[in-house]
């Protein structure tokens, strides 16, 4: 209770002191039509379209300001934060982040907040787009099985965060209670080809990253800001593989990017693109030609870029361990014609890894240097394979594949290895993290991705499979190649 009072009291002070300035600058912006956006008449009533991430509702275009009904349902529900790791999310509309709300300046929003009867706790909502005490928090505090209604007028165009502000506020946010509300300017935002909704959040679990089972929230880790997961759209992999967002060559993509926090600031970057435009902090100021934009906890940005060449663009928080070790990684798959002038995929000398070699889930480039002459015989494969082994695997798995107790699993006579060849190929290509059992013993560590050509991976695994009592399988470069393609798909 103390927390809530403090929070709203602080907000109230901040809001009142800045209200005069806010209103004044609004009047400036919209003086063509109205001396003040609060005077824009809201005619007729309509129900707001709400969407789940990564999708956004239809643009407002030229529609007039209206009385807009927003029906939002709070749901506390179990989900998966990553493979085998379950978490009870608290959500606005059943997703993390919550449903996207799209309005225009001058709308009179009638907000109907429903707390599902199966929920355990009261909640409320603080929308940063609201001019008024607590951003609506006080008027919307609602117990399970109840509904609260309040209304507000959107005075300032921009992209805003909303979140639960019920004590303990940090815990409600950490469990996923945040989302975005867009207030479009008069006449709407310029038209683009694709729009998506992405929101970063940090999560704190009792178990370490990857520890399976239902994981409760860890208050101490949250207070210490030691996140186990940093993710886009609520879970690891929410925007990768077949859940990647898409675009075609030549299209302009607009991303509405928010950061729910509760703690961490995002250094939002798209590997392989430059933002043509950034609406800095979601406001009116447009910056151009930006590589990485900072998105504060409880803040947002709109980024836009035209995609010129096909391939997979990687969305990251460039505080890079978060991306490759904690989950803050998404994909935008671009299809269409190559343009060799803009990007030549033909260079065969070496490997371009802009983020360094310690990458675990980075989808591989399609071109990897073939540093070896193809091995012709089994004897050659064993010879080349052993050379690669001694150079790259030896340090951890040791000379006879015996590994090191508690730290590095054995490759000698390994049931885990012999069980699944594709999995073994993937481990070498992409690395491995999380708990595994090898010959009855548990390991929970990290093996980083190995930067090897298809030929080298084939040879080293053939060597491992044909040594130390293993199952004598032969791995071919074609098998490795097909695993690479698998992950790019
Ligand atoms: Cu809440």
UniProtKB/TrEMBL annotation:
Family: Belongs to the multicopper oxidase family.
Chain residues that bind Cu cation: 123, 128, 163-164, 172, 177, 318
Catalytic activity: nitric oxide + Fe(III)-[cytochrome c] + H2O = Fe(II)-[cytochrome c] + nitrite + 2 H(+)
Organism: Arenibacter certesii
InterPro entries: Cu-oxidase-like_N, Cupredoxin, Cyt_c-like_dom, Cyt_c-like_dom_sf, Cytochrome_c-type_DH, NO2-reductase_Cu
Leader peptide range in chain numbering: 1-20
Native organism taxonomy: Bacteria, Pseudomonadati, Bacteroidota, Flavobacteriia, Flavobacteriales
Required cofactor names: Cu(2+); Cu(+)
Sequence ranges assigned to domain Cytochrome c in this UniProt record: 380-468
UniProt GO MF annotations: copper ion binding; electron transfer activity; heme binding; nitrite reductase (NO-forming) activity
Keywords: Copper, Heme, Iron, Metal-binding, Oxidoreductase, Repeat, Signal
Domain of life: Bacteria
Keyword Heme: yes
Pfam hit, one: Cytochrom_C
UniProt protein name: Copper-containing nitrite reductase
